[in-house]
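Both lines are given unchanged directly below:

***
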Amino acid sequence: MTLGRTLTAVLLLSAAALACAAGPAADPELREVLRKAASDSPSFTDRFHAEVWLTDMSGRLARQVQDPQERIKLLTLVHMEAKRVELPPELILAVIEVESNFDRYAVSVAGALGLMQIMPFWLKEIGRPDDNLLHTDTNLRYGCTILRFYYDKENGDLRRALGRYNGSLGRRKYPNKVIDKLTRKWFKV
């Protein structure tokens, strides 16, 4: 690890600790859903479908993630976690693009971490303080689970679910950005 990445990791963990300490009260229902998800997994059922989807999405992601192996690994994890919670993987890609632009080390001003910008207080809330939200698989597991929970809570209303996910329920800016990315870039033609 380079000095720059080490410093970045230290800053991220410091921000995470601050966010944990000041985190909002957690929804007990969501806490239980996350607890179960932090220990579970499915994905592609057909090799042909896998190759076609991965090839297509890899081309769309090339600008943000230059390394082809890293791209395929990320896409495979996104697909697996999205399918686990029965959400379209393309939706998850749109959320990641809007939240972090595929920067797995991203930290928001509020202290949210990683690709899907997960608030660190969840680690303590579900009794998994050693989980690392900067690890792609962990971040995707939490993010997909949270989004699915809000989607169900909003009875399938994607805009409201996205608003809840972002903490902007009732406002249209964030949901519109995600839906725009979803329809213009990520959904299959």
Observations:
- The chain has one domain: 3-186.
- Residues 54 and 76 are 8 Å apart (CA to CA).
